[in-house]
Design a protein that fits this description.
alpha/beta; Rossmann fold; 2 domains; 6-stranded parallel beta sheet; 4-stranded parallel beta sheet; 17 helices; 15% strand; globular
Length: 369
């Protein structure tokens, strides 16, 4: 079986790579728009996600010609490439359009990690119903929305549960920072995070570490730290995020998939996010959920604090760091909440379930033909 996978950012690349390995074990050939994780899983890359790493309404508009050119290229591949299945992973701005192209070309579509219709743009459900054969969902509360819209969907569990979980050892770091995976995120987030650390260090020693995602602007991060008199070699960590999370007593995490990884680590944390003023103004009109942290959404309650937009300032983060490190009652409260999040994410095996579903969806179209 020949499968075309399209992802748009680092977490999607990681989740898709797990599925790609399972597919290859079953004899499938994988062509992909992806990153190093998919390449390591044996996929043939036709485009690297570094060229797609933009975030926000304004940035997407500026990059529109590049996305249009990529869509045309993949459209031609779907028409002429002999693919048995299209496996889009999240990234709905491009992938929903490609799903339409695949459907017109007679290529069945298994959408993995469906669009966040629970947060905004619920109208996408109608487009999903028209263009997608099956959706594999990774958040438990999503299925009811897809069922109500008559979109075939299964909750397969969260792929983070498929990662090996080493035992928690000594907490060698007081605070670990996760400023995001996209360059725009890191540039907006790192300065106020560093300001907060400096404020705390005026009162007490603080062992801090900063996670560096594969798609983060490493050179810029090094220069920013050096200007502040911080040795980049001492604080920058390129190890897997989960390992760093388990070595820290507390975390500050950019909103996104990383908040679920943080929840699984068991370390108490807070969530932050800042985007451009225009992007935020548009998002406030569109987003329908009261909270942004996935850990809070899965739990259905405010387990971890959120510092969004203007709330992301050094004084507020300083107080949060002190609370996370010294308030044992607060640390225990967060810990109990994170156990509830873990219980709701399903059971390990999501990647194997998606791989099995891929063959099933492809065979359905063959039988119908």
């Amino acid at each position: 079986m020949r499968v075309l996978i399209v992802v748009g950012e680092a977490s999607g690349d990681s989740h898709a790579a797990k599925v790609a390995r399972r597919l290859r074990e079953r004899g499938a050939r994988i062509t992909a728009v992806g990153g190093e994780a998919l390449r390591a899983a044996g996929a043939e890359l036709v485009e690297h996600i570094e060229s797609l790493s933009v975030l926000g309404f304004v940035e997407v508009l500026r990059s529109l010609p590049r996305f249009v050119a990529l869509k045309r290229r993949i459209d031609a591949m779907l028409r002429d490439g002999g693919f048995d299945l299209f496996l889009p992973v999240d990234f709905p701005g491009l992938n929903l359009r490609l799903a339409a192209s695949a459907s017109r070309a007679g290529v069945p579509v298994l959408y993995y990690i469906g669009p966040q219709v629970w947060a905004w743009r619920a109208g996408r459900l109608q487009r999903m119903r028209e263009r997608v054969d099956q959706v594999a969902l990774i958040l438990p509360f999503e299925k009811a929305l897809y069922d109500a819209a008559s979109v075939p969907a299964l909750f397969v569990g969260h792929p983070l549960l498929d990662d090996p979980v080493p035992p928690v050892g000594e907490r060698t770091v007081d605070l670990a920072l996760f400023p995001g995976s996209r360059p725009q995120e890191v540039v907006r987030h790192l300065p106020p995070l560093l300001d907060a650390i400096e404020r705390v260090r005026r009162k007490r020693p603080l062992r801090a570490a900063i996670s560096v995602a594969a798609t983060a602007p490493l050179d810029w991060m090094r220069q920013t730290l050096a200007i502040r008199g911080i040795d980049p070699e001492e604080v920058l960590h390129t190890e897997p995020a989960g390992a760093l999370m388990r070595s820290a007593r507390a975390l500050l995490v950019a909103s996104g998939t990383a908040t679920l990884e943080a929840a699984l680590s068991g370390s108490p944390f807070a969530v932050f996010y800042r985007t451009g003023r225009i992007n935020y103004a548009v998002a406030r009109r569109l987003v329908r959920v009261p909270q942004v942290a996935l850990a809070n959404l899965v739990a259905g309650e405010a387990i971890v604090r959120e510092y969004i937009q203007e709330q992301l300032h050094p004084a507020a983060l300083e107080a949060e760091i002190e609370r996370l490190l010294t308030d044992e009652a607060e640390r225990a409260r967060i810990g109990r909440g994170l156990e509830r999040v873990r219980a709701r994410l399903g059971t390990p095996g999501a990647s194997e379930r998606v791989a099995a579903l891929a063959f099933e969806v492809a065979s359905r179209r063959v039988v119908l033909a």
